């Protein structure tokens, strides 16, 4: 690892004394902002729908443009930081994140808000790998690094838990745009502090940076997801608007893989995917996040639009999920040593599927104890799965490929989140819409408008008025609950497939530490007290979010 003389002095100061803990505070604030932004908008979705009147597709893009753009650019900015300086990339990311937050807060059209969320994704993709690479550099001792990562993941869980509550408070007392304004003063503070305090570092990577490969990966991920989203919005499989991006994304990803296999200094060593443990772990991460984020978005709409809870009350109802995830992260290392990756990941999936099936008992009336129990089981099960999958993936990667493996894990995490919103959202729409488009006594154009979303159905019903409006409102609410049940069943099926896939993982955790418990040959060093190991270039260590 190399850097300038000044950077080296900063690094030695940070790594050799108490200053490294101050560096950790700065990095944790960075993560807190990224984690908050991933969840703070969820409870504001109904308010955004009422104010900006987005279509169903636009609403999906408003929510998941951030994670999808972020996922597509992680490899690009992670490898860029390795070669040109992580601190430099991080500081630019701070500036972009603050600017995008201001644009999002003042957006007056769905298109502007989508663009701002995409720009937030650019900033997040610059912040995530750079912060964790710096953290790894300033904590060279494994035990101290484990403590630092424990603090890091706890901050992530707090951010994820605080997001809906803070968002609910701001929406109730101000307007939905205020959920983005909270980023600006923190960025204004952290940018000069980070410039003064954080050490510069670069990865020990030889050879030129593969610019074309990074762009191919970014375009491939975006194209594939855009195609899925178009199909989920109801486009035909023969529609060029859906099939075109999907095919283009697939071709770009295939060319990216081929290019990486042929290059002497690839961005990602594709030979890692030939290892059953590595590829299985990546698949489990995608399935777990697919289930979590899609369900969380639908749950927020259910709590507010069906049960009539306020945004703040909705955020409080979601707290048990994140607190359960924090508990699973805190006990994850002990559990992994006792039961091994295979049983930990598989039983985590099974527990999550059981929680999802329990939530099918939800109806049009509030059952708080049922919801709380389901959310606790959901959070604990998914975090258990993510912990075991990340540990297995990073342990399987060769030491010199740790950064690439971590980038793949973070991309899988973000991609699974975005795909979950698109896939489960499309399942929900397919189950929700038919009852409204064919509703007797309601004009066809009115029913078609109401079929876009439950929030839009309420608006249409209010404008229609009378018995027809009340019938439309009641039908929409009933159809939404039925759609929710179908979506939960589909999600449970995916989770059980994940449990079967986890059977390819090793029975016993192989590690270098605690040799009396893990006597197997030494493996690449992994320190994962919660959900992630910050290898050379990884993303945020969120707990279940």
What does this molecule look like?
Helix content is 76%, strand content 0%. The protein is mainly alpha-helical and 545 residues long. The model is unreliable at 1-18 and 511-545 (pLDDT under 50).
Order of helices and strands: HHHHHHHHHHHHHHHHHHH
Gross morphology: globular
Query: What fraction of the residues are assigned to beta strands by DSSP?
Result: under 5%
| pLDDT averaged residue by residue | 76
| CA radius of gyration | 23 Å
How many β-strands, per DSSP? 0
Q: Which residue ranges are poorly predicted, with pLDDT under 50 across at least 5 consecutive positions?
A: 1-18, 511-545
Number of helices: 19
- Distance N to C terminus: 31 Å
Give a quick account of the main beta sheet: strands, pairing sense, barrel closure: none
Structural class: mainly alpha
Tell me the helix content: over 70%
- Oligomerization category of the chains in this entry: single chain
List the helices and strands and how they pair.
Elements: H1 5-16, H2 19-39, H3 45-52, H4 56-84, H5 86-105, H6 110-138, H7 142-173, H8 178-181, H9 183-197, H10 211-232, H11 240-262, H12 276-306, H13 311-359, H14 368-396, H15 402-432, H16 434-437, H17 444-450, H18 454-464, H19 466-501
Helix pairs in contact: 1-2, 2-6, 2-7, 2-9, 4-5, 4-6, 4-10, 4-15, 5-6, 5-9, 7-13, 10-11, 10-15, 12-13, 12-14, 12-15, 12-19, 13-14, 13-19, 15-19, 17-18, 18-19
């Amino acid at each position: 690892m190399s850097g300038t003389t000044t950077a080296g002095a900063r690094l030695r100061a940070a790594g050799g004394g108490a200053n490294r803990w101050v560096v950790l505070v700065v990095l944790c604030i960075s993560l807190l902002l990224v984690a908050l932004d991933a969840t703070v908008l969820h409870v504001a979705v109904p308010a955004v729908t009422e104010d900006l009147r987005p279509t169903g597709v636009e609403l999906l893009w408003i929510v998941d443009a951030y994670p999808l753009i972020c996922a597509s650019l992680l490899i690009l900015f992670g490898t860029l930081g390795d070669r040109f300086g992580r601190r430099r990339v991080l500081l630019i990311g701070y500036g972009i994140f603050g600017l995008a937050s201001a644009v999002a807060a003042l957006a007056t059209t769905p298109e502007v808000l989508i663009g701002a969320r995409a720009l937030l994704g650019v900033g997040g993709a610059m912040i995530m790998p750079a912060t964790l690479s710096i953290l790894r550099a300033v904590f060279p001792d494994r035990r101290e690094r484990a403590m630092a990562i424990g603090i890091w993941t706890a901050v992530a869980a707090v951010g994820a838990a605080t997001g809906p509550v803070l968002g609910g408070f701001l929406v109730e007392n101000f307007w939905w745009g205020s959920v983005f304004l909270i980023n600006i003063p923190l960025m204004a503070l952290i940018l000069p502090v980070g410039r003064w305090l954080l050490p510069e570092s670069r990865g020990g990577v030889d050879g030129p940076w593969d610019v074309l490969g990074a762009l191919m990966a970014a375009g491939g991920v975006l194209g594939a997801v855009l195609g899925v989203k178009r199909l989920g919005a109801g486009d035909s499989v023969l529609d060029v608007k859906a099939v075109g991006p999907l095919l283009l994304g697939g071709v770009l990803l295939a060319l990216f893989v081929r290019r990486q296999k042929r290059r002497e200094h690839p961005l990602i060593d594709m030979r890692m995917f030939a290892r059953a443990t590595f590829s299985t772990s990546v698949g489990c991460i995608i399935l777990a996040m697919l289930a979590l984020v899609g369900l969380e978005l639908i749950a927020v709409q259910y709590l507010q639009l069906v049960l009539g809870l306020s945004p703040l009350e909705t955020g409080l109802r979601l707290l048990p999920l994140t607190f359960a995830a924090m508990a699973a992260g805190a006990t994850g290392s002990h559990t992994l040593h006792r039961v091994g990756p295979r049983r930990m990941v598989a039983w985590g999936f099974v527990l999550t599927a059981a929680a999802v099936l329990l939530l099918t008992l939800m109806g049009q009336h509030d059952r708080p104890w049922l919801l709380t129990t389901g959310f606790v089981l959901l959070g604990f099960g998914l975090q258990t799965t993510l912990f075991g999958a990340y540990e297995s993936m990073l342990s399987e990667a060769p030491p010199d490929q740790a950064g690439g493996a971590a980038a793949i894990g973070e991309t899988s995490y973000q991609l699974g989140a975005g795909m979950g919103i698109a896939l489960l959202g499309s399942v929900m729409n397919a189950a929700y819409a038919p009852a409204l488009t064919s509703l007797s006594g309601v004009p066809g154009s009115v029913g078609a408008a109401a079929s876009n979303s439950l929030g839009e159905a309420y608006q249409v019903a209010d404008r229609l008025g009378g018995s027809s409006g009340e019938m439309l409102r009641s039908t929409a609410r009933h159809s939404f609950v039925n759609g929710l049940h179908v979506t939960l069943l589909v999600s449970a099926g995916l989770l059980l497939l994940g449990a079967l896939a986890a059977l390819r993982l090793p029975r016993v955790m192989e590690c270098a530490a605690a040799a009396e418990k893990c006597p197997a040959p030494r493996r690449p060093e992994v320190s994962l007290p919660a959900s992630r190991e910050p290898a050379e270039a990884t993303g945020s260590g969120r707990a279940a979010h």
